[in-house]
Amino acid sequence: MALQYQLKEGSYHLYDMSTPASVVTGEHRLRLKTDNVAIAFNVSTGMLHEHGSPSRIHSWATTARRRLRAAGSLDSANDIVVVSGPLPVDEINKCLRITGYCRRMFSRLATLPHGKLVTRARPAH
Asked: Where do runs of H (alpha helix) occur along the chain?
């Protein structure tokens, strides 16, 4: 499955690019529509675990951490990080495509632009 986020009308749309495009709309199968995106990953390796709506991802991470701690894996539990908010679409998609990219994105998080701001080129004078 090839998943890709797109920003449309102020919402993040997650499409399954492995499905054929609709003859009517030209779009691939829509898997999720959400105002913000959350990404859960291991901070030490950048390995992506889950992505999607913030409430679901935060719930997943809480449960995963609890289970790991109960099994005595404190370091593994503490290694799970969730980043959520209006993230840039290209950064989210790189996390989906490139193994370990979440770690790179996390290190630059403070300098990333707001994900829903549209930058427009200024006319030259």
From this structure: 54-70, 74-79, 89-97, 101-107
Can you give the pTM of this predicted structure? Answer: 0.85
What's the full length of the chain, in residues? 125
Domain ranges of the chain: 3-111
- Of 65, 118, 115, the closest CA to residue 94 belongs to 115
Residues 6+ apart with CB under 8 A from 39: 48, 50, 51, 57, 82, 83, 84, 87, 92, 95, 102
Q: Which of 95, 70, 109 is nearest to 12 (CA)?
A: 95
Each residue's pLDDT tens digit, 22-63: 888 888 988 999 999 999 999 999 999 999 999 999 999 999
